[in-house]
Amino acid sequence: MHLATVFRDCLRNAISVSFTLFRVMIPIIIVVKILKELELIDMLAVPLAPVMELVGLPASMGLVWATGLVNTVYSAMVVFVSLAPEAGLNTAQVTVLATMLLIAHGLPVEIKVAQQCGVSMLGQGVLRVGAALLCGLGLSALFTGFGLLQEPSHLFWTPGQEPATLALWALGEARNLGSIFCIILGLMLIMRLLDAVGITGALSWALGPLLRRMGIGRAASAVTIVGLALGLSYGSGLIIHESRTGRIGRRDLFYSLTLMGLAHALIEDTMLMLMLGADLSGVFWGRLIFSLAFMALLVRFTKGLSDTAFERAFLHNDKGAPQATTPTNDIS
User: Fold this and answer.
1) Cα dihedral sign for 326, 218, 183, 233?
2) Are 48 and 133 a contacting pair, CB within 8 Å?
């Protein structure tokens, strides 16, 4: 195929996918901004105080996680930096909080984006928050029981200033959306190149056995790898595109998006948490191992469900959502 034709095809697909994502993201970004300006996010920290104590954290850290749950990791980092000096956290506590934050953050945007791929918003929200709590409990028990990472934590990051005006904030968000479009276009071009030279097939073959244990078939393995490495928005964007081709089964969609939700942006997000003083053992290895184990149990639990029961519990049936034409899950 001619290069100009490939580029036009990828550009058209990137515009279509970005429009689907932005239609979801922009209203939620505005609503979250309003909640932040009205200081209503603080109210979410109140019911989270007992949860923080359950995982060995001060009640004040509930505000950090509450901010992360409805906003971005960066917003939670800003709140953490303002509260950390008085909290006097050790490295283990920062690692627990950071890992929980990475598993469950930005839910209004991320679970709505997942819904556009055909899965249930409520199901994804419950799975993400529940998994974050389970992982936090496990890491806290491990670190406390074996006396690991008990030294005082150290911050390696100072946040920049918040936008002074609403116009500057809007300009910053527009730039972020523009970056997302450029990355989606770049990823689609790269995926076409990798597919043409056979690298996509090689990756799917190499990681196929592991991903199939997670319930993710060959058709979804490549885009799942993208989501794990770069982020849920990019992985979801590619899945929206792939699902429209009918090559990805409904169960594949659910398992792939759930795994990406638990362990996405393994490179960028991990580096951000290390800057807060978290330890690599939790925010990378702990999150990755927990996510794979969680998915293995989830697949085992849902394997016996009929298609009707599975769709009712975990999928979203909407005329605007992408539908795969393949009736069964490709995990053979």
Assistant:
1) positive
2) no
